[in-house]
Amino acid sequence: MKTHIVLLLAGLAAWGGTGCGPALSGPPSYATVDGFTQGSTYHIVYNDPQGRDLRTPIEELLEDIDNSMSVYNPSSLLSRLNGNDPAAVPDRWIAECLELARRISDDTEGAFDVTLRPLISAYRIGTEETPHLLSPRELDSIRAFTGYRKVRIERGRLIKEDPRLALDFNAIAQGYSADLMGALFDSLGIADYLVEIGGEILCKGKNPGGGDWRVGIDRPVEGNVVPGEDLQTILTISDRGLVTSGNYRKFAFDENGNKVTHTIDPHTLRPAVHNLLSATIVAPTSAVADGYATVCMVIGLDKSKQLLARHPELEGYLVFGEPDGSLGVYATPNLRKRIVQ
Fold first, then answer.
1. Which residues on adjacent β-strands are paired with residue 327?
2. Residues 200, 290 contacting (CB under 8 angstroms)
3. What are phi and psi of 6, to 5 degrees?
């Protein structure tokens, strides 16, 4: 899951309800827009010297994204592609997400895989039903039509090696959505903004206090369900994407009492099990941060350290469980300079 974060603006927490409220503290040109999208919430702050109310273009873009890439919208383009609608043709957004996903998959030896939709459905992840821990026979059956190398775009058409294969961009789509929103603001000449969609963040410029944006990362312990109530750390960020993934809030127990997390290891097709509790990734884009935060929660602490060591463009903050039950932290050198506390 992408965990909730807390936005800290000019030293004050700014996590509000929905609706377009009054301007935040600071220059009157800063405005905030909140709402619901993609099964989660969004929180956007922007500084428009022209004082434009951008709620309508923001909502229209989010609706367009939902109609393109949502697996929960039965009429979305992605749902139609998953259902093998012969009239459905991938749009630019789906093509770009699939290409980025493939690059991350190749880079991580398949630890990132957007073809696990049938498996997620079989586990009943994201539903109100009791999760079902799949048997080896069930896993072998589903394995036949999963695998990121079994799908591609060729001459503008989505080619699947098995018609039962289905795509799910949830591990990258909200980060990509934040990048699209940033591109909208860039096109409007807005230099200062923070976009948060479902926990995925893209920042640019300065906050209302004139400094870098500040993001509070929640402590990854069970029972910490209120964003901002128990912070692990505060980071400064600007002109980057930031995503935190973790399994400490969103999990359930199957019919046999086994803990089932939503992070699936594409190699075993089972929920990932290790001592890494949360992974915060800072990257040039929110989509890249989104994808690699998910990868870290698949591969665990040691392999995540190795991954970050060979990717100097990525910054990482990893929180893990120690044998005595305490929390340990690993931060890459390039991220340590962002830590406020």
1. 321
2. yes
3. -120, 125
Amino acid at 297: M
In Å, how far from its chain's centre is CA 174? Answer: 5
Per-residue model confidence as pLDDT tens digits over 39-92: 788 999 999 999 999 999 999 999 999 999 999 899 999 999 999 999 999 999
3-state secondary structure of 185: helix
Give the chain's radius of gyration (CA, Å): 20
Neighbours of 72 (CB within 10 A): 12
User: What pLDDT is attached to residue 189?
Assistant: 96
76 φ, ψ (degrees, to nearest 5): -65, 160
Helix (H) or strand (E) holding 55: helix 55-69
Task: Note the pTM of the prediction, 2 decimals.
Answer: 0.89
Q: What digits encode the pLDDT tens for the residues 275-317?
A: 999 999 999 999 999 999 999 999 999 999 999 999 999 999 9
φ/ψ of 155, rounded to 5, equals 55, 40
| pLDDT over 90 percentage in the chain | 72
Tell me how many degrees the CA angle 225-272-258 measures, rounded to the nearest 5. Answer: 70
- 155: which residues sit within 8 A by CB, 6+ positions away? none
Alpha-carbon gap, residue 209 to 9, rounded angstroms:
7
DSSP assignment string, 243-294: EEEESSSSEEE-TTS-EEES-EETTTTEE--SSEEEEEEEESSHHHHHHHHH
Residues 6+ apart with CB under 8 A from 339: 233, 234, 235, 331
Confidence band for 10, pLDDT divided at 50, 70 and 90 = very low
**Is residue 338 within 8 Å of residue 282, measured between CB atoms?**
yes
Rounded Cα gap, residues 278 and 265, in angstroms: 16
